[in-house]
From TrEMBL:
GO terms for biological process: brassinosteroid mediated signaling pathway. One of its GO terms (molecular function) is ATP binding. One of its GO terms (cellular component) is endomembrane system. InterPro entries: BSK (IPR045845). This is Serine/threonine-protein kinase BSK1-like.
Length: 84
C-alpha cells in the first residue's frame, strides 16, 4: 500500500515533538560571580539602598545636570518676569 504525503504528515503530527526531537543535554552551568552591593540592590529594585550607596561613594555625576537645570529655570523665570 502506497502512503500519500497527507497520510505521512498526519502520522507525524500525531507524534509528540519531544519524541521526534533528540534529548538535549544540560549545558554546563557557567560560574557566576556574586553580585556587588549595588548589583544586589538593583536586582531587588531597592531604591533606598541604591541611594545610600551613591551617597556613601560620593557619586557626583548628576551635579552638572542639576546646575544646568537650575540655570535654565532661573533664566526662564527672569525672562518671564521682564516680559510683563
Amino acid at each position: 500500500m502506497k502512503r500519500t504525503l497527507s497520510s505521512a504528515i498526519c502520522t507525524l503530527v500525531s507524534v509528540p515533538s519531544h519524541v521526534m526531537l533528540p534529548k538535549h543535554e544540560e549545558a554546563p552551568s557557567t560560574l557566576q560571580r556574586p553580585l556587588s552591593a549595588m548589583g544586589e540592590a538593583c536586582s531587588r529594585m531597592d531604591l533606598t539602598t541604591i541611594y545610600q550607596i551613591l551617597v556613601i561613594t560620593h557619586y557626583k555625576d548628576d551635579e552638572e545636570t542639576i546646575k544646568e537645570s537650575q540655570i535654565r529655570n532661573a533664566s526662564s523665570y527672569l525672562l518671564k518676569k521682564h516680559r510683563v
